[in-house]
Amino acid sequence: MKMVEVQNVSKKYGDATAVNKLSFSVPRGEILGFLGPNGAGKTTTMRIITGFIPPTSGSVRVDGLDVLESPLETKKRIGYLPENAPLYPEMTVAHFLTFMAEMKGLDPKTISREVDHVVEQLELGPVYRRLTGNCSLGYRHRIGLGQALLGDPPVLILDEPTSGLDPRQRIEIRDLIRSLAGERTVILSSHVLSEVQQTCERVVIINKGELVAEDSPSGLAARLQGHSSLQTEIRGCKEQIVGLLGEIAGINTINVDSEKERSTVFSLEVSPERDVREDIFHAMAAHNCPILEITSHGASLEDVFLQLTTEDPASTATAGEGDTR
Q1: Is 195 in the same domain as 313?
Q2: For the chain, is the Cβ count within 10 Å smaller at the N or the C terminus?
Q3: Full residue range of the structural domain in which residue 189 is found
Q4: What is the pLDDT of residues 95-151, one digit of tens each?
Q5: What CATH number corresponds to the domain at position 234?
Q6: Which residue has the higher pLDDT, 31 or 218?
């Protein structure tokens, strides 16, 4: 089921177009990475999805409800963490979360239980009675995420949730977001592309307000690169191994990286449409040539991002045509 549907959405500010005929959807339980350079229209799109601002044209549906036609009902289904989450520095964490639960219209009888659950989930116990303004940046991000989780919304919109955090804090927040997969639909915007690659099942990349690609991180890398590569170390006669590898469909080129006393390291350029690793295993096992190591190498999400966002969107839009949903 499509939990979030963005259909032909545009947003103009005077003569300036921030978002231009943007369409994509997110199924229930998926974590989607929403990427683009500064000024690409990411934050504008997130604000449109949450109902914070209206689109100039197009529509957004959340859990089947039109954001403009049913604003209150859709907002109940969304937890939103904007970049630099606004907190009230004079409030304690307990007071702030309780206040936000009240603002969300939660049942007064359940607010205490809701707050306790979020505090436990995000490990906010050590700062529960502390002023939010006196909390570390890492805890302030957790508090901001906590208010988004109040009311158990099925959709989370997270704009740069790990911005400014140290490596350990990034890992903690990333692991928490990953733990939500399947339970909630998450749209995650981040400039830390390695985190998106580790966290998200699929990515949407926009540039100048337009969709330029949509696929899994590995799928984007393979399609843009045109091929992927494997490095493998195999024990046995080099000439025999080269002959066996040459018989496997999908292996385009075979290069010898290095020769060791009893094994050889090969680099293989392979077609992205076919996973040849199982074929390699069976071929080598049948001829008693043990595989000591096999590693896949491809373009990183950062490589893909730079390639797509440094070219004209019209020339790269075809990269996502087969996967636009």
Answers
A1: yes
A2: N
A3: 2-222+303-323
A4: 999 999 999 999 999 999 999 999 998 889 999 999 999 998 888 988 999 999 999
A5: 3.30.70.3190
A6: 31
Give the model's pLDDT for residue 324: 34
Helices 137-149, 93-103: inter-axial angle, 10-degree rounding: 30
Measured distance CA(264)–CA(95) in Å, rounded = 64
List all residues 6 or more positions away from 212 whose beta carbon is below 8 Å from its beta carbon: 205, 206, 308, 309, 313, 316, 317, 319, 320
Is there a single domain that holds both residue 179 and residue 278?
no
pTM: 0.73
Q: Is 171 left (phi over 0), alpha (psi -120 to 50) or beta?
A: alpha
d(Cα 23, Cα 9) in Å, to the nearest integer?
7
What are the start-end ranges of the H helices in 150-216? Answer: 167-179, 193-199
User: How is residue 48 written in tokens?
Assistant: 């449109």
Assess contact for 43 and 83: CB atoms under 8 A: yes
Q: Parallel, antiparallel, or unpaired for β 31-35 and 251-259? A: unpaired
